[in-house]
Amino acid sequence: MKHTAAPADLLRLDCCGPPGDALKVRSGAWSAVVRDALRVDRSKLALIPAARCAAGIAVPLVVGELSGHILVGVGAAIGALTAGVASLQGAYRERVKIMAVAAAAFAVSAFVGATASRVVGVDVVITAVWAFAAGMLVVFGQPATVVGLQAVIGLVIFSQFHFGAPQAASNALWALAGGGLQILFVAVIWPLQKFPVERKASAAAYRLLSAHVQSLADDPGVLLDPKVIDDLRSAVSETQPLGDPAAAAAFQALADEADRIRLVTAGIARAKALLDAAPSGRGDGGRPVAVYLDAAIVAAAKVLGDAADALRNGRRMPDLSDERNEFRTSLDSLRATAATAGGQERLPLTQAADGLSALGGRLRSVAQLTAVAAGDEPADSTLLAASPAGGPRPSRAPRSMSTRAHLETLRANLTFGSEAFRHAVRVGATMAIAVGVSHLFAYGHGYWLAMTVMIVLKPDFAATFTRGLARSVGTVLGAGLATLILAGLRPPHAVLIALTVVLYAVCVATLLANYAIYSVAIASLVVVLLAFTGAPAASLALDRVFYTILGAALALAAYALWPTWERRRVPERLADLVEADGRYGAALLQAWADPAIADRAGLDRLRVAARLARSNAEASVTRWRNEPAGGRPQEQEGFDVDTAQEILVAVRRYVWGALALHGRLPEAGPARPELGALAADVRRALEAIATSLRSGSPAGAYPALRATQAALAEHLTARSDVDEHTEEGSNLHHLDTMIVSETDLMVDAVDTLANLGGIAVL
Predict the structure, then answer these.
(1) 3-class DSSP state for residue 102?
(2) Intra-chain end-to-end CA distance of the chain, in Å
């Protein structure tokens, strides 16, 4: 592919800025992976769940010790451990369902492992089948992946024992009971908590939204990461079952408001960029008009930050009179200046004033909804249920997939063209080798080899390498030292119980925040649990370290021999992104062609789909950057990681213009049928670009997009039936001018995408 655009920073929407650290990240992929393995994400520390899970594992151990059946208590604690890890997925009923499935899968696997492991060949085959099935579960997302991992670990751990069916069934039932205890601990605290999941997610999203709005004053060319809205919608899709229905509806409405604010701020950012690029006009008091806009932006960011704090603490927002006054003063000044401006100077001023007016309405809704969520204000059914005129009609999170849909998804991925299938085959074959190899060595606890392979081997290189590094370091520091300490001190059961509870709390707290710390804790925890059967021999420290390092090496070797490099996925992900934005942009332009009959709900669904496609594409390019240059397959001519990033930049510029148009789409108004031709050309152009990205060569006819947009601009700016001296005529002229400006940006971005995709644009 040929391309001429200069490298651009992914976080900016222009294509003329410095590339930042992009090339450094590419050349330092190995060091980036190491840094990722050692970085602690404090926002993901799960302290409260850690305390709950620790209590769930302490009860069976204490009861087992007091009743004289400590090994039964250990069996139940292992089941509680599994369910506790699964409790970090989902929320409320969905969390309980995930925990129940994980506990049941672990219990069944424990039974099969303890009864079928006597024959080496059977052990190898069953482990391979279990691992393949767990690998295929990645197509259903993170919760299913966690369940699959827990099932395989249960099989591997219990395969070291050779129980008869009655004893194996008893152990499996006790493990299932421990999982049930953790589920009870999750459900019993529902009435004691005041929407903890919703408050945490809403506060985090509004804090990021506040930072994004604040950044517009200095750099309007930055779009909010769509993952912010997606994560919030996911968190509030299921609200606390026993909570106040009005508060639950308020949290869901807050997610809708966050989405609307994202749309409104896109238009404000466009106006800000146009004002920054234009000669500095003066408003009331002689201040530059851009200063008024900046003041309003800062005031709005402060309100959103106050909302985040109030949501986190479960209280109403503080007095907003200062921010309200600053916001109103700035808005009035912009309106006054816009009224006296002429020509092209009026467009950004009017667009900024209209955007701020809409943002003010959204901020008022946020303040009211925050009070309702805190239980400090009666619910307004109109506020909770209705979308405002001119705004998008938000889509709720999709319902869970049906059994038939799951089977269809699974069947569609049972092919070597599927990355999930390749991962499942790789992990199944590697696990079979690991089990077979463990039987060849005389070292004890050979299950550590297979367990390490299962934990380390992931669908992408960066995760596999990070897990391998963290797992190896964790075992050396955790299992090695813990084995030596326990072998020397031989502590009583009371001390072992205390160590188990503390180590498990650390595991849960750090699982999502830092895998290296988690690896140290979980390796130590396994050693402590095994110590209940008898103090470990000091020699086992070397055994476990040996098996762990061998397992990590085996996992990396398997990936190197049959890799699924992210590079192969990137063109398809980018093509999906381009197609999704083509459908969204075409539908948006068609809606403007006749706003009175526009399908706004369908338009919003297309916008959400395009947003998801952008998140997937950006994550894919990031993973490609983290792959070692020497290990990637041969790149197509002209298409490298920097070209992929330039495509993302161009898409963001396109989205910037589209969101500005979407935020101003009226409920009704005069038809502009000329936009239909541009809508069709935009979709055809982006389909041709997507085909080119997939095939690696230009394919399909590329329309004369610029000529179509120029004809539209000429028509809209030459209306003879518009009297700009009337309020209606002035508003119509302003909207026409805005359409010309935003479609110019969109077409410019599409033509840039065409050049990057190897399509010559005249």
Answers:
(1) helix
(2) 17
Mean of the pLDDT values across residues 371-388?
Answer: 61
CB count within 10 Å of CB 108 equals: 16
Q: Quote the CA–CA distance of 149 and 130 in Å, as a whole number.
A: 9
Neighbour-count burial of 67, counting CB atoms closer than 10 A to its CB (0-12 exposed, 13-18 middle, 19+ buried): exposed
pTM as predicted: 0.77
- Residue 483: enclosing H or E segment and its boundaries? helix 481-489
Tell me: the pLDDT tens digits for 86-144?
A: 999 888 888 999 999 999 999 999 999 999 877 778 889 999 999 999 999 988 888 89
Rg (CA), the chain: 29
Tokens of 266: 């896109």
Residue-level pLDDT at 538: 67
Q: How many CB atoms lie within 10 A of CB 666?
A: 15
Backbone angles phi, psi at 696, to 5 degrees: 85, 5
Classify residue 290 by burial, with Cβ atoms within 10 Å: 0-12, 13-18, 19+.
buried
Q: Which of 234, 110, 267 is nearest to 663 (CA)?
A: 267
Identity of the amino acid at 638: G
The pLDDT tens digits for 176-233 are: 999 999 999 998 888 777 888 899 999 999 999 999 999 998 888 887 887 888 889 8
Q: Is the dihedral of CA 30, 34, 39, 44 positive or negative?
A: positive
Q: Which of 701, 702, 687 is nearest to 581 (CA)?
A: 687
Contact at 8 Å (CB) between 293 and 352?
A: yes
Question: Can you tell me the distance from the alpha carbon of 120 to that of 178, in angstroms, rounded to the nearest whole number?
Answer: 30
The span from the CA of 315 to the CA of 371, in Å, is: 7
CB neighbourhood size of 552 (10 A)? 26
Cα dihedral 365, 366, 371, 373, rounded to 10, equals 110
Distance CA 653, CA 656 (A): 5
Cβ-proximal residues to 182 (8 Å cutoff; 6+ apart), any chain: 53, 56, 57, 79, 80, 83, 84, 87, 99, 103
Residue 282 phi, psi dihedral angles, 5° rounding: -120, 140
Q: Which of 432, 480, 478 is nearest to 453 (CA)?
A: 432
- For 288, phi then psi, to 5°, come to -60, 140
CA dist 678 and 673 (Å) reads: 10
Rounded CA gap, 147 and 110, in Å?
14
SS3 at position 627: coil
3-state secondary structure of 225: coil
Residue with the two structure tokens 């998804």: 409
d(CA 361, CA 753): 36
CA distances from 658 to 151, 361, 619, 755 (A): 46, 21, 22, 20
Six token digits for residue 415: 């092919």
pLDDT in tens, 5-15: 333 332 333 33
Rounded CA-CA distance 379/160 in Å is 58
Q: Are the beta carbons of 639 and 738 closer than 8 angstroms? A: no
Domains of the chain: 22-28+566-756 (1.20.58), 39-191+416-561 (no CATH), 195-230+245-374 (1.20.1410)
Which of 673, 702, 704 minimizes the C-alpha distance to 688?
702
Query: The dihedral of CA 424, 427, 429, 432: what is its sign?
Result: negative
Q: How far apart, in whole angstroms, are the C-alpha atoms of residue 580 and residue 616? A: 12
Q: Which residues lie below 8 Å from residue 585, measured CB to CB, with a gap of 6+?
A: 654, 658, 679, 682, 683, 686, 746
- Tokens 């992408």, located at residue: 460
Token readout for 271 is 């106006």
DSSP 8-state symbol, 288: B
Partners of 282 in beta bridges: 288
- Contact in structure between 304 and 366 (CB atoms under 8 Å): yes
Cβ contacts of residue 728 below 8 Å, gap of 6+?
none
Q: Which amino acid is at 100?
A: A
